[in-house]
Amino acid sequence: xxxxxxxxxPSPEPRPRYQPLVIVLVAVVGGVAVDRFWPLSLAAWWxxxxxxxxxxxxxxxxxxxxxxxxxxxxxxxxxxLLLSVAATAAAWHHCRWYLFAAxxxxxxxxxxxxxxxxxxxxxxxxxxxxxxxxxxMRTRPMGDCSRFAVDLAALRNGSTWQPVSGxxxxxxxxxxxxxxxxxxxxxxxxxxxxxxxxxxGAFDIAARSRAYGVLSRLKVQVxxxxxxxxxxxxxxxxxxxxxxxxxxxxxxxxx
Length: 255
Fold this sequence. Notes:
Number of strands: 8
Radius of gyration: 27 Å
CATH class of the largest domain: Mainly Beta
Order of helices and strands: HHHEEEEEEHEEH
Strand order of the largest sheet: 1-3-5-7-6
Strand content: 15-25%
Largest sheet: 5 strands, mixed, barrel
Number of helices: 5
Helix content: 25-40%
Shape: elongated
Mean pLDDT: 82
Distance between the termini: 58 Å
Number of domains: 2
């Protein structure tokens, strides 16, 4: 008959998980939220970030040996470091959301499209836009179209080309044209602002585009309105990256 064994080794107690990056994530999200609803100037955010780093360095210099207020000083330093992280995230959001170049063409767009003749550089290859399902509420049927991002370079103003900047989304009706990243294009189209939500709970396309630094949309009726001015060349890094991304998307679609 087998006797029970009492020589079992007790299992160690589970240690509490320590995840400091969660606290850092909360500080980053808080900095972005504060700048979105109560924005400060970019200089103010950088001043807070540098001040927080300075205060973070002070406690180790003061508490280089054990003292009565060591824990208090270390807590103060950690709070200063998190404040610096939040201010850095707020400064990044401020640059992405509020700061645009003076000649950014998106600053002068309207809700109603305006005819323009623009020279731009392709950032990515055109991607086909899926045709939406038939909807009796849709007044205009959508056919085949493609979409890609371009960086604006010049605007035809009378008989001269005026330098401009900014990124826009180019929407072309018809099959995707043979364009690669880095190609320089000239196109006739209509330039307008991304639409804001007009119904409660509707998706805010304007806010999403603004988060990517896009303040305008360029619509081209037919691919014949696009003219190739100069190719980007095979050594273009954006072209190589776009081919790798296209191959990855194709593999994801297959498997």
